[in-house]
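Incident review: delayed structure delivery

Summary: a single-chain prediction request sat in the queue longer than the usual turnaround. Root cause was a stuck worker, restarted by the on-call engineer. No data loss occurred. The affected request and its eventual output are reproduced below so the record is complete for anyone auditing the incident later.

Affected input:
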Amino acid sequence: MKHPSRRRVKPAGAAPGTVVYIGESRSEPVRISHIQYDSQVALAPKTVLASEVRRPSDMSGVAWFTIDGVHDTTALEVIGDSYGLHPLVIEDIANTRQRPKIEDFDNYIFIAMKMITYTAELKKLRAEHVSIILGKAYVLAFLEDEGDVFEPVRQRLTAGKGRIRKLGADYLAYALMDAVVDNYFTVLESLGEEIEVLEEEVVQSPSSSTLAHVHRLKRELIFLRRAVWPMRETVNSLLRDESDLVTAETRVFLRDLYDHTVHVIDTVETLRDIVGGMLEVYLSSVSNKLNQVMKVLTVMSSIFIPLTFVVGVYGMNFQHMPELQWRYGYPVVMGGLAIVAVVLLAIFKRREWL
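Output delivered after worker restart:
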């Protein structure tokens, strides 16, 4: 169903490369942070304007710009002009519906990804469009909304932990991609816990709300699969690309990242199979529950059929029915009906129909 706050497509007839924001309506200003670092020191993050996002003059260090918000197309065009980005790249950055992909240009690499988050209160997945520009001694990270999973990377950078300062901009781009993929595992863990609870509900007490829950999980997993599946080809293309912007040392880590993406995809497929199986279990549980009800009704009917027959016989208005004049006729008939009911119950119990 079409979301009222989204613009699905750019205006008809617009020229290729026309920068049009496609996404949820936003009015907050774009926030841009800058971190400059080298092997010895990393400066504290500072907020800058779009006009201040320039190519680093000192190629010995690495410049990392994080642009929170891609709805300001003017700011995107200013940054694109400063770095010589292709108009089609700027168009893809502003299009939050762009699928994950990678494009290699002469002096930079463009990477598009989807950052997935899970809201436990709403039990809903949310995808955020992430674009990365990897150049010589700089990385530009464009985020759809403020707040991301890159904070651990910033902390490692400022604390000087690991090899992130020693290696170049390509390792920083890898670290950002790795943070996105690692977050997939967190999302899968939350979905897995929800699926475990739902499995017990499907078997023990299935209801109409259970069926709605199963269908919602199926939609969420399809949504996750669409975001994750192209990521494997993106990492594989970056790994096999012969660009000078990616060093041999970083390619080792990219191979590990590729393995992680394959693991994520396998897990998604496994969860999809489990949820698909739960739908069959739900239908079987409902059918079994209906069979139990029908069994009880059938047993009750089987008991009352002979009783109804006897009562019907003695309810006929014939003049000559000796039992009607007998003093013990009523208790004998009632006792006989009770004996018939008990015998039928015993037979049903012996044959395990009850």
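Verification: Residues 295 and 353 are 8 Å apart (CA to CA).
Action items: add queue-age alerting; document worker restart procedure.
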